[in-house]
Specification:
The complex is a heterodimer of chains A (about 220) and B (about 90).
Chain A lengths: L6 H9 L2 H27 L5 H16 L10 H21 L20 H4 L6 H21 L2 H13 L3 H7 L4 H21 L4 H9 L6
Chain B lengths: L10 H12 L8 H16 L4 H4 L1 H9 L1 H21 L4
Helix pairs in contact in B: 2-4, 2-5, 4-5
The chains are: A mainly alpha (about 220), B mainly alpha (about 90).
Chain lengths: ~220, ~90
C-alpha cells in the first residue's frame, strides 16, 4: 500500500540517492501507471496496455528533469499524472495516425459548381434556412481560401476536416505542437478580422445554424 | 444524398469553426502553457471550485484545442479514480 507522501516528501525522496530514490520512483511509477490505466482503458481496451509503461517511463524522465519547475500549487501526484497523460496521449495519437498522410485539402474555387447544397446543409432545415446556411458556408470557405496563408489553410483543414491531432499535423509540417497552435490561432484571428471587415460578426453567422425552429 | 467532398467543411464543422472564431482572443495560451496550469485547473474542477472563472485563459484554450481538452478529461478520470481508490467509503 502506497504511503501518502506530502509534496515535500516526494521531492526530497526523488532528489535523494540510492534506495530512497529508487523506492520513490517505484511508487511513482506504480501510481502513474494505475492513473493512466483508469484514464485510457476505454480507448485502449485495457488498463494494462504496454504503451502505458512506455509512456510512464518517458514521463518519469521528464518529471525528474523538471522537478524544479514543480511549484507546489497542486498535489505532486496531480502534477506528475498530468505529465504522464500528455506523454501517453501523444504516443497513442502518433501510433493511431502513423499511416495517415496530410492531405492537400484545397478548398474548391467558390464560384464553381462543386457544391451539392442539398447534401451539405442541415438535412432537416427549412429551405430558407438551408439557403442561408449554404451562403454562410460558402462565405466561410471563400474566406479560408482568400484570407489565410497557404500554411494556415493547410493546418486548419487538416485539423478540421481530417481530425488530425495538432502534434501529428505539426510533425508533417516540420514544426511543433505549440507553433501549430499559434498557426491555427493566427488563422482564426485572420478569419475574425476578415468577417469584421465585411461588417459581419461570427456570432450572427452562427445564429444561422443554431436558431430554434429547425426541422419539422 | 451526394457524398461530401473531403476538401470542404460540413455544416457542423463550419459551426464549430465559427464558434471558435467568435471566441478567439488576441492572446491565447499555447498547449504547453496550458499544460503548465492543468494540474491546478484539474484540482479546482474536482473540488467543485469555479476553475473557469479563476483561470479563464486555460478554459479558453481548452475550448479551442481538442487535444488539450482530451488530455484534461483523461487527467480528471485518472484523478477521480485514484481518489475513489483511496476513499472507497466516501
Amino acid at each position: 500500500m502506497a504511503l501518502k507522501r506530502s509534496n515535500e516528501a516526494w521531492l526530497a525522496a526523488l532528489r535523494a540517492s540510492g534506495p530512497e530514490r529508487a523506492a520513490a520512483l517505484d511508487e511513482l511509477r506504480a501510481q502513474l501507471l494505475r492513473g493512466l490505466g483508469y484514464a485510457l482503458r476505454d480507448r485502449l481496451g485495457s488498463a494494462n496496455h504496454p504503451l502505458l509503461e512506455d509512456a510512464v517511463q518517458e514521463a518519469l524522465l521528464k518529471i525528474l528533469a523538471h522537478l524544479d519547475t514543480f511549484q507546489g500549487r497542486s498535489h505532486f501526484l496531480t502534477w506528475a499524472q498530468k505529465i504522464a497523460v500528455r506523454e501517453a496521449l501523444t504516443m497513442l495519437r502518433r501510433k493511431a495516425w502513423q499511416d495517415v498522410a496530410l492531405e492537400d485539402l484545397q478548398p474548391p474555387e467558390t464560384d464553381s459548381n462543386d457544391w451539392t447544397p442539398r447534401a451539405l446543409a442541415a438535412p432537416h432545415a427549412h429551405p430558407e434556412r438551408r439557403a442561408e446556411q449554404n451562403e454562410v458556408m460558402a462565405l466561410v470557405m471563400r474566406l479560408i481560401q482568400e484570407a489565410l496563408t497557404p500554411r494556415q489553410r493547410r493546418a486548419l483543414m487538416a485539423v478540421a476536416v481530417q481530425g488530425m491531432p495538432l502534434a501529428e499535423v505539426a510533425r508533417r509540417m516540420n514544426t511543433n505542437r505549440n507553433a501549430l497552435y499559434k498557426l491555427l490561432h493566427d488563422a482564426r484571428r485572420r478569419l475574425k478580422a476578415a468577417l469584421e471587415a465585411q461588417g459581419l460578426s461570427p456570432e450572427d453567422l452562427l445564429a444561422v445554424f443554431q436558431e430554434a425552429g429547425e426541422g419539422d | 444524398m451526394g457524398e461530401r467532398k473531403p476538401n470542404i467543411l460540413g455544416p457542423r464543422q463550419i459551426e464549430q469553426l465559427l464558434d471558435k472564431v467568435a471566441r478567439t482572443l488576441p492572446q491565447e495560451l499555447t498547449c504547453d502553457e496550458c499544460l503548465a496550469e492543468l494540474d491546478r485547473f484539474a484540482e479546482m474542477t474536482l473540488l467543485g471550485q469555479p476553475a473557469e472563472k479563476a483561470m479563464p485563459l486555460v478554459a479558453q484554450h481548452l475550448a479551442m484545442c481538442r487535444d488539450c481538452r482530451e488530455e484534461f478529461e483523461a487527467l480528471l478520470r485518472a484523478l477521480r479514480a485514484m481518489q475513489a481508490e483511496e476513499a472507497p467509503d466516501a
